[in-house]
Automatic annotation (TrEMBL):
Residue ranges of coiled coil: none
Source species: Tyrannus savana
A GO CC term assigned to this protein in UniProt: endoplasmic reticulum membrane
GO biological process, one term: monoacylglycerol catabolic process
Name of this protein: ABD12 lipase
Cited InterPro entries: AB_hydrolase_fold (IPR029058), Hydrolase_4 (IPR022742)
GO MF annotation, one: phosphatidylcholine lysophospholipase activity
Every Serine aminopeptidase S33 domain range: 5-73
Length: 171
C-alpha cells in the first residue's frame, strides 16, 4: 500500500540516520518510487519537523491517476467505457494516490528531477509538469532543478543511472 511503502522508507531513514553520523541522506525515487520518495519526505517534514537532505526523482509523474491515464501501455484501454472507473478510480479506492504534485508544494529540501526525453513509460511532460509545480511553490527557487537527457543518449525509462555524468549532476 502507499502507506506501507511510506512507513517502510521512514523506518529505513531512521535506521540509516542512526548509523550515518553526519553524512547526508537523500531520498532517491525512480518511477513509482518517486511518489514514495515525496510522500516520505513530506511526512518527515510535517510530522517530525525534519527535512531530508535532498530528494532526487528519476522519471517521475505528477500523481498515480494522471500517470495511469497517460502511460503508453494504457492507450488502447482508454477508449473503452469504464476505463476511468475500473482502472483509475480503483487505485483511489485502494488508497493509492502517490501525489507528488501535492507533496512537492510543501517540501523545502533540495529537489532534483531527472527525466529522459525518450522515456517510453512515463512521458517526459509529466516530469516537466512536476518541476513547474515545485518551482512555483518553493520559496527558494534555487533548490529546485530539472535535468533532461536527450533522446540520442538512449536512456529511456530505466537507464538514467547509467549516464557517466550523473554523479557530477547530482552533486
Amino acid at each position: 500500500t502507499e502507506r506501507g511503502f511510506t512507513t517502510d522508507v521512514l523506518a529505513l531513514y531512521d535506521w540509516a540516520k542512526a548509523r550515518s553520523g553526519n553524512s547526508s541522506i537523500l531520498f532517491w525515487g525512480h518511477s513509482l518510487g518517486t511518489g514514495i520518495a515525496t510522500n516520505a519526505a513530506r511526512k518527515l517534514q510535517e510530522e517530525r519537523g525534519v527535512q531530508v537532505d535532498a530528494v532526487v526523482l528519476e522519471s517521475p509523474y505528477t500523481n498515480i491517476r494522471e500517470a495511469a491515464a497517460h502511460i503508453p501501455i494504457t492507450k488502447i484501454y482508454r477508449q473503452f467505457p469504464g476505463f476511468g472507473y475500473l482502472i483509475l478510480d480503483s487505485m483511489a479506492r485502494a488508497d493509492m494516490f502517490f501525489r507528488s504534485d501535492e507533496n512537492v508544494k510543501v517540501l523545502a529540501c533540495p529537489l532534483l528531477i531527472l527525466h529522459a526525453e525518450d522515456d517510453g513509460v512515463v512521458p517526459p511532460h509529466m516530469g516537466r509538469k512536476l518541476y513547474e509545480t515545485a518551482h512555483s511553490a518553493y520559496k527558494d527557487k534555487t533548490k529546485v532543478k530539472f535535468i533532461t537527457f536527450p533522446e540520442k543518449l538512449g536512456l529511456g525509462h530505466d537507464y538514467i543511472s547509467f549516464n557517466p555524468e550523473l554523479p557530477a549532476l547530482v552533486k
